């Protein structure tokens, strides 16, 4: 049977919800089952509530034929998603961090500097605060502060990404801007996962044209959990790093290489020397700072010694060494952020050579927070610059944040609460051990940053807030005589840079809109308080 015939039986192109191409087959899922004609002529069945028609794929049906169906699906998906671009009013909405207008945002994607502009994309499920088939939304900036909405760049419209255009990075190669991402599909009644690494290219009209899969099969020894390509040109060729899981359920780094970005050869799985180190590694990044190589990834399944820390989705940065064959050796690793909400970060090199990182301020399993009552969840972190100093990774808010700063005022902190009237500010203060800073508080709600003199930990406690999921206490061991805090606050978040960026703790904080008090117990201190202005970025096309 021809593809045209299958489309006709399915009730026409506009009745096709998705297209799949399991081995040797073509399957279409229909929108309205009543429009299907002659169901006996094809294999027709309900798969998890979706009415699917399948036929054998004969050699005459090319990927290009399937792509035409994908284009029609994409047009409908864009139209549907465009109904979800009006930002909902919400007291928890950040003033200057990137958040989705509606729906769920997760990983940053495609963070890159290309021809004088910064590009950043986010994983998006437009229709609800749920992790379902993901889209990519495209933002652009000239200054790394003011982000302008561009488009819904990619939708889950094709046979190779029908259940999610999953995460990946961008490559700026001369005039070309390429996106590499993981196409996620789910097949049959058991929702068998099928994973392919795919590419898209920025066309002259500003749209992203999908090129289809560049890696269609799995390398030996791994499960379908292999995703989130990072592509880098080094040692005279392109390398692709992927987060992977071995068949005995160990997280690893899978590496491919290519001469031309199209044909990819598998090299090896790396990370044996860390094992066991979780059941899956997600979202690798790879970069150089001051001549040292670093690999970042999200190991899943690692447990913490601290009883308050129950989350298995973690963040790590490793200093690595590459041998002459390009092999990776993991030397020394650290947590990038010791707070609650930091995952799947990506970095880029700025025009003036700095390494700047953006993370997802959220975690994979959390889909219920107070902002969901207003139809959206999750946000990005502030951009942070990473430096390598005396054998340590140092992270600081990027200099560009200056564009948002109002006038700095001294603030005398004591047990007498001060009403700030805003939750979007920067605060710098140095505190002795034994002190306790209460932020974003009213009578009932508060965040407490306690410097516990006995245990020598900074305790970040959000148990007296409206948080609905996730841990409520994080403890960070520190050895300094006093503790210097540089805090960024933005309505529903705190990012705490500690001791000049030696450590960072990030957390979503939900307290009522008028809980804007700050107080300091067991000591008094002079702080610097700087209001941060709203970033003039648009969520939706203007
Ligand atoms: C990380 C992640 C990625 C995946 C994406 C899907 O948060 O699970 O591994 O590509 O999210 O949205």
TrEMBL record:
Record bears the keyword Hydrolase: yes
Pfam families in the cross-refs: Glyco_hydro_32C (PF08244), Glyco_hydro_32N (PF00251)
Protein name: Sucrose-6-phosphate hydrolase
SMART domains documented for this protein: Glyco_32
Known EC number: 3.2.1.26
Compartments (UniProt record): Cytoplasm
Role noted for this protein: Enables the bacterium to metabolize sucrose as a sole carbon source.
Biological process according to GO: sucrose metabolic process
NCBIfam families (alphabetical): scrB_fam
Pathway note: Glycan biosynthesis; sucrose metabolism
Matches recorded under Gene3D superfamilies: Exo-inulinase, domain 1, Glycosyl hydrolase domain, family 43
Segments forming domain Glycosyl hydrolase family 32 N-terminal: 97-397
Domain annotation Glycosyl hydrolase family 32 C-terminal: ranges: 421-532
UniProt family annotation: Belongs to the glycosyl hydrolase 32 family.
Species this protein is from: Vibrio navarrensis
Catalytic activity: Hydrolysis of terminal non-reducing beta-D-fructofuranoside residues in beta-D-fructofuranosides
Cellular-component GO terms for this entry: cytoplasm
CDD domains: GH32_ScrB-like
Key words, A-Z: Carbohydrate metabolism, Cytoplasm, Glycosidase, Hydrolase
SUPFAM superfamilies: Arabinanase/levansucrase/invertase, Concanavalin A-like lectins/glucanases
GO terms for MF: beta-fructofuranosidase activity
């Amino acid at each position: 049977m021809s593809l045209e015939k299958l489309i006709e039986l399915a009730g026409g192109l506009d009745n096709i919800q998705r297209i799949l191409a399991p081995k040797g087959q073509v399957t279409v899922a229909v929108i309205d089952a009543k429009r299907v004609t002659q169901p006996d002529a094809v294999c027709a069945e309900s798969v998890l509530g979706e009415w699917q028609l399948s036929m054998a794929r004969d050699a005459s049906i090319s990927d290009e034929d399937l792509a035409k169906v994908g284009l029609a699906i994409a047009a409908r998906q864009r139209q549907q998603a465009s109904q979800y671009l009006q930002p909902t009013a919400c007291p928890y909405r950040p003033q200057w961090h990137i958040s989705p207008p509606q729906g769920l945002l997760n990983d940053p994607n495609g963070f890159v500097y290309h021809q004088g502009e910064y590009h950043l994309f986010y994983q998006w499920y437009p229709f609800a605060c749920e992790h379902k088939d993901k889209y990519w939304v495209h933002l652009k900036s000239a200054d790394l502060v003011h982000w302008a909405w561009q488009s819904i760049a990619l939708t889950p419209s094709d046979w190779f990404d029908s259940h999610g255009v999953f995460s990946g990075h961008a490559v700026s190669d001369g005039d070309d801007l390429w996106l590499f991402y993981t196409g996620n599909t789910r097949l049959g009644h058991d929702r068998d996962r099928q994973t392919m690494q795919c590419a898209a290219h920025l066309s002259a009209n500003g749209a992203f044209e999908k090129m289809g899969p560049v890696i269609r099969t799995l390398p030996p020894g791994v499960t379908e959990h292999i995703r989130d390509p990072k592509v880098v040109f080094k040692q005279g060729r392109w390398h692709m790093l992927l987060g992977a899981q071995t068949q005995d359920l160990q997280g690893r780094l899978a590496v491919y290489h290519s001469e031309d970005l199209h044909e990819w050869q598998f090299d090896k799985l790396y990370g044996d020397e860390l094992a066991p180190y979780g059941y899956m590694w997600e979202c690798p990044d790879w970069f150089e700072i001051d001549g040292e190589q670093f690999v970042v990834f999200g190991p899943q399944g690692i447990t913490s010694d601290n009883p308050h820390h129950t989350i298995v989705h973690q963040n790590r940065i490793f200093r690595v060494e590459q041998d002459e064959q390009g092999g990776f050796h993991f030397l020394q690793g650290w947590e990038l952020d010791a707070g609650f909400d930091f995952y799947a970060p990506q970095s880029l090199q700025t025009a003036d050579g700095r390494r700047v990182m953006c993370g997802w301020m959220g975690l994979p399993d959390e889909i219920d927070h107070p902002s969901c009552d207003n139809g959206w969840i999750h946000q990005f972190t502030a951009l942070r610059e990473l430096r390598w100093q005396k054998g340590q990774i140092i992270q600081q808010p990027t200099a560009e944040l200056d564009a948002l700063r109002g006038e700095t005022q001294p603030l005398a902190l004591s047990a007498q609460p001060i009403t700030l009237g805003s939750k979007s500010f920067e605060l710098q203060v140095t505190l002795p051990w034994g002190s306790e800073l209460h932020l974003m508080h009213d009578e009932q709600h508060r965040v407490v940053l306690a410097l516990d003199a006995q245990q020598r930990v900074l305790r970040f406690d959000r148990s007296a807030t409206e948080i609905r999921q996730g841990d409520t206490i994080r403890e960070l061991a520190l050895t300094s005589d006093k503790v210097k805090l540089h805090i960024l606050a933005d309505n529903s978040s705190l990012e705490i840079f500690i001791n000049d960026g030696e450590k960072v703790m990030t957390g979503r904080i939900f307290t009522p809109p008028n809980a804007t008090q700050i107080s300091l117990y067991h000591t008094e201190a002079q702080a610097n308080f700087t209001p941060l202005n709203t970033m003039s970025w648009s969520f939706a096309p203007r």
